């Protein structure tokens, strides 16, 4: 069975973000997002109305950027981060263009309306993995850990927000321990040291699992997260990301 892009189980505020209740119809950029109407209204008061992927005025998500995020029949593709987590790593595309700007807009500019197009792409990617026989509806999506200070600064955890908008079974099982630094700008060895023993299990997760993150760069966070999940007995099938750098 393929996850429906027309239904979202989460319709309430969670993790600091309004969860989209419908994806795939006109409105709210490329998608109708019933529950994000209030968020969009608030954004209109503080941000200019512009496309989150290219900056085109008078729209939140333009047709060209919607097309750029459409998941092709051969996607997600296998990525090869420098650190191997020991399971397949799938990415929906390169960290560039509208994909990059949308992720940055959501994480750094408070563009919570961009959860909708990003979550739709995620849902389509999961559907393709189902079709290929890599996973099925029994899988649990586990968001990669986010530092508490980063989540507070962003008003919530965008990775968990996208996961909950795209898939019915999401467990926020991982958390970054205190003192883990922001990984931006760190070398591969520094990233590895930064996350070593700093990802912890905060909630049990059972059965088949897919680790989800927005971006994979060196693979340090994914490798440590997979190790922690496997040590706790989870059967990690794969890592899935919106983008690879």
UniProtKB/TrEMBL annotation:
InterPro entries with a match to the protein in the record: ComF/GntX_DNA_util-trans, PRTase-like, PRTase_dom
CDD domains: PRTases_typeI
Domain of life: Bacteria
Recorded family membership: Belongs to the ComF/GntX family.
Listed name of the protein: Phosphoribosyltransferase
Organism, as annotated: Mycolicibacterium doricum
């Amino acid at each position: 069975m393929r996850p429906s892009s027309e239904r979202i189980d989460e319709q309430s505020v969670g993790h600091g973000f309004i969860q989209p209740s419908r994806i795939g119809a006109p409105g709210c950029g490329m998608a109708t997002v019933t529950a994000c109407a209030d968020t969009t209204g608030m954004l209109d008061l503080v941000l200019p109305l512009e496309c989150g992927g290219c900056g085109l005025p008078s729209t939140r998500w333009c047709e060209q950027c919607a097309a750029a995020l459409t998941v092709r029949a051969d996607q997600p593709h296998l990525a090869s981060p420098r650190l191997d987590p020991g399971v397949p790593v799938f990415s929906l595309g390169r960290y560039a263009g509208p994909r990059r700007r949308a992720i940055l807009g959501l994480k750094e500019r408070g563009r919570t309306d961009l959860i909708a197009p990003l979550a739709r792409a995620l849902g389509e990617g999961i559907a393709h993995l189902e079709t290929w026989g890599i996973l099925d509806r029994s899988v649990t999506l586990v968001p990669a850990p986010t530092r508490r200070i980063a989540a507070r600064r962003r008003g919530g955890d965008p990775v968990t927000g996208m996961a909950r908008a795209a898939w019915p079974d999401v467990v926020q099982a991982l958390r970054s321990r205190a003192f883990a630094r922001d990984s931006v700008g760190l070398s591969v060895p520094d990233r590895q040291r930064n996350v070593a023993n700093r990802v912890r299990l905060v909630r049990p997760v059972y059965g088949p699992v897919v680790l989800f993150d927005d971006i994979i760069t060196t693979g340090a966070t994914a490798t440590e997260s997979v190790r922690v999940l496997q040590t706790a007995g989870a059967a990690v099938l794969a890592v899935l990301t919106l983008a690879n750098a």
